[in-house]
Amino acid sequence: MVFYYKQGELPKKRHTVFTKDGKLVREEVFGINGFSGRYSLLYHLNPPTRIVRLEEWKDNSIQEWKSSGYRHHKLSTSKLRESNDAFLDRITLLFNEDTFISYVKTSEGESKVFYRNADFDEIYYVHEGEILFKSLFGEINVSQGDYLVVPRGTTYTFVFKKYSELLVVEGKQVELPKNYRNEYGQLVEGSFYYNRDIRLPTLRTYDEKGNYRLVIKTSNGFQFVELDTHPFDVVGWDGYLYPFALSVYDLEPITGKLHQPPTMYTTFTASNFVVCTFVPRLFDYHPQAVPISYYHNNVDADEMIFYSSGQFMSRRGISKGDITLHRGGHIHGPQPGAVELSLNKRGTYNDEVAVMVETQKRLKVSLYAKEIDDPSYPLSWYNY
Fold first, then answer.
1. Residue 68: phi, psi to the nearest 5?
2. d(CA 276, CA 46)
3. What amino acid positions are annotated as catalytic residues?
4. For binding Fe cation, which residues are annotated in this chain's numbering (predicted)?
5. Is 44 annotated as contributing to ligand binding?
6. Which H or E run contains 217?
7. How far apart are alpha carbons 94 and 73 in whole angstroms?
8. What is the pLDDT of residues 184-242, one digit of tens each?
9. Whole-angstrom Cα distance, residue 10 to residue 367?
């Protein structure tokens, strides 16, 4: 995050003695990029380094669909199985060294372990469901249409209040776009959203002893450890690094006389990829406008779109929950007839919600994606 926030009890000065009920409180510097990046200071009732037992290591290698060729794809998440756990059993569909794009379907219930992703920030998009996110920073309720951004290294868990489906994007340096911010970190006039749209955690402190399992994820696998004190024992924290939520329905799209490029809908930036959100908005209103995306060939980028809700005017045969992958170097755009049908939509309202991830490195396709792939999709601009 880019603005300062604090919650709970804090000492007057950092790195000084701080006691609560006669007990020394333990300070943690939680930060990224060494000691020169964003960070927060957290104050624990117990040493956060305390591990009772080192448990199993579980491999998490992703099998690539190497014979998939180099073409466009359409994936139907409706065909995916339910995940046993939103963290341990998310189904990775597309990936490269910078980005992992996965999907989760999970039933009502509380996660049985605590989570920490050591290598990647996480962006959860809630396609369906209601979830209580619990972390050492506090709790956030999220539901359909919400993004939940979790900085790498955060310890957290979930309570699923009902059946839920989540799109998960993992990467590094997930931030608010720099062009939205002034030199003080405030979101400027004309940006896609404002600071007050961002929902922060509400601190809840657990002073409990017991047996608590924590799983730490790296790019290669999962390490399980056991703790004897509850990891959410923080009595106060402050800083610039913390989880937050943002609803797509609070986004403020910029529209114009002529069709706007996807960069107008950039929601988050990251290392070698961006996340954009297409949200309900007015179609273009120039009397000669073509209010639909033009044919385009983003040679240096791969483009994934997750279709969440509404009408997807540029394509037939797209259902809610579908994912398309359009390859750089292959031209893509509206299907035949879509441009003509769009001409009477000038100035009317479009209700679509879709999430786009555009990567600067080629995405690999997993064997899980092979199971839900439509092999006829690359010909859908001809066979319609």
1. -75, -15
2. 40
3. 259
4. 296, 302, 332
5. no
6. strand 209-217
7. 11
8. 889 999 899 999 999 999 999 999 999 999 999 998 999 999 999 999 999 999 999 99
9. 49
